Amino acid sequence: MTIIFNEKSLKNEIKSSEELFEEIKVIMKARQFLLKREIHIHCHRNFINYKFTNDKTILSYIMSFDKTERIDVMNWLSKTGPFWDDAQLHSSEDLYFHDDEAVSGTALAEAAAQIYCGEEYGVFSLKNERYSDREITITWRNNSCDLSFNIENYISKESLEDQVISSEKSIESWNQLERMARSVFLNIEFTEGCFVHLNKIPFYKAASKSIMEKLKVLDKIKSCFDVTGGFTQEGNELNQNHFIGDKAWFSDSSDTEKRDFSNEMTFKIKKDDNRLCPWHGKVKTPQIRIHFTYPIEHQSPLYIVYVGEKITKR
Questions:
Q1: For the chain, which residues make up each domain, given as ranges?
Q2: What angle is formed at CA 287 by the lines to CA 283 and CA 293, rounded to 5 degrees?
Q3: CB 177 within 8 A of CB 212
Q4: Which stretches in the chain have pLDDT values below 50?
Q5: Rounded to two decimals, what is the model's pTM?
């Protein structure tokens, strides 16, 4: 599928570079995720010159970004693209509408035109009430004949993750699981050999699905912090639902296990950094464990250090 940025979803009344950055960083995170999978978010070549209601351009605000952020955004919008209008399919004279708003010349019209020709196109939208649905309906009015097209609409990195994972071929091996996990879950870090232990046991499709579900929760909770370093509401809910109680997916090892299996549960994070990691996620059939660094904190990386057979199994 080709993903193009829905420029109509950007607010018209951006009043500062800080406000624009908060908007842009959402799509930059999504773009970073997709680039890992060699997928691009296409933009309009002239989008960088878009003017807000105060007559300021996107370019003028970007120039006030911090250097690293400025370079990344400028490279995307003015150099690397790719730019969907370089090979634009629909004509600016074609009549495309979203509800009663004319959208000819925009990404929405281009996506509709491409879908009409049998191509798989979706759009990425920023948070905007007009573009919050899972699908956006665009109508092409042509010679008194209205044709409607439903365009897949992605509004977060997470929605793209779900699409990428669901579109992947079914996991058929532990090696395939490792490749997918490393490319999809970008908020957590995997130590170099954390998956090698899986090769000691036969492949189980149901277990591979359970491992991916638990890694997804760890990846998500690592992104759920507020400016004070505490969990957001979503982070607290994930913690309550999956880290607390007898049926929690993740738990600490017992004092006895930590005493008897201290060496086995000590893992090399990097050179001269070995840590006891008794916290783990549980897969029941077979008994597989996912050990990770704990506590989960805003400023510290969350490392996955071991995925394999239950260490404390006798």
A1: 2-157, 169-309
A2: 60
A3: yes
A4: none
A5: 0.60
